[in-house]
Amino acid sequence: QVQLVESGGGLVQAGGSLILSCAASGSTITSYAMGWFRQAPGKEREFVATISKSGYNTYYGDSVKGRFTIARDNAKNTMYLQMNSLKPEDTAVYYCAAKVVLIDYFVIGRNEYNYWGQGTQVTVSS
């Protein structure tokens, strides 16, 4: 069973950048597809990005495409989210998630993920 811990959140001005990290423990992540989700107050948890277990395949939500980049370093058991050109509407708690998979492909559905971190707050000021 894998445990996930997010870090790197904070307060940033619009147009700025942040890098979120998701450190895994308890298990190697080489068997897991992983993803980032976010949840703003009063809204449902929203898909942001996902990456296959090798890192070769990625997929992004429309609202972040071209601005965010998901990556992983399996040797460090860590996943990342590079966020550029941040907007106030990106303000949310960001969660990382993991799911054991057999094939090297990504997982988009929130309900498909088995493991979640506790979240890290990202606030973008205008």
List the main descriptive attributes of the protein structure presented here.
mainly beta, 126 residues, 0% helix, four-stranded antiparallel beta sheet
Shape: globular
Give the SSE string: EEEEEEEEEEE
Mean pLDDT: 97
Uncertain regions: pLDDT < 50 for 5+ in a row?
A: none
Strand content: over 45%
Radius of gyration, taken over Cα atoms and rounded to an integer in Å? 13 Å
Measured distance between first and last alpha carbons: 40 Å
Biggest pleated-sheet summary: 7 strands, mixed
Structural class, please? mainly beta
What's the number of helices? 0
Helical content stands at under 10%
What is the number of beta strands? 11
Describe the structure.
The protein is mainly β and 126 residues long. It contains no helices and eleven strands. The strands form two sheets. Strands 2, 4, 5, 6, 9, 10 and 11 form a seven-stranded mixed β-sheet that branches. Strand 4 and strand 5 form a beta hairpin. The mean pLDDT is 97.
